[in-house]
């Protein structure tokens, strides 16, 4: 799945989707992981700004993509990778790295 946000193609962000009514794919974040992801996003990684709780709380995954890109612009992937590591989804970090390697 490819999501478009602010004109940038970000296929890896499709892995952040949460589809509770469909069978969960092993690459998706479950509800608990998504909750943790939002918590870490509100706090912001070291050296990066926090995102206001009010913006994160009601956000769906598409909104989170927009928040990442709006807040961290060119560093959005690095911030996402940092947070995914914190929620123990190194498999998704590897996918991002493979994607970045294949496109450069």
Automatic annotation (TrEMBL):
PROSITE patterns: DAPIN. Pfam families: PYRIN. InterPro entries: DAPIN (IPR004020), DEATH-like_dom_sf (IPR011029). Residues 27-72 form the Pyrin domain. SUPFAM superfamilies: DEATH domain. This is Pyrin domain-containing protein. It comes from Cyprinodon variegatus.
């Amino acid at each position: 799945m490819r999501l478009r946000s602010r004109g940038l193609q970000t296929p890896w962000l499709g892995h952040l989707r949460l589809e509770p009514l469909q069978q969960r794919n092993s690459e998706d974040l479950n509800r608990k992981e998504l909750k943790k992801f939002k918590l870490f996003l509100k706090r912001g990684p070291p050296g990066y700004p926090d995102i206001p709780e009010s913006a994160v709380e009601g956000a769906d995954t598409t909104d989170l993509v927009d928040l990442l890109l709006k807040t961290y612009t060119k560093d959005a992937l690095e911030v996402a990778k940092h947070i995914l590591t914190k929620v123990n989804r190194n498999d998704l970090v590897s996918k991002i790295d493979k994607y970045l390697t294949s496109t450069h």
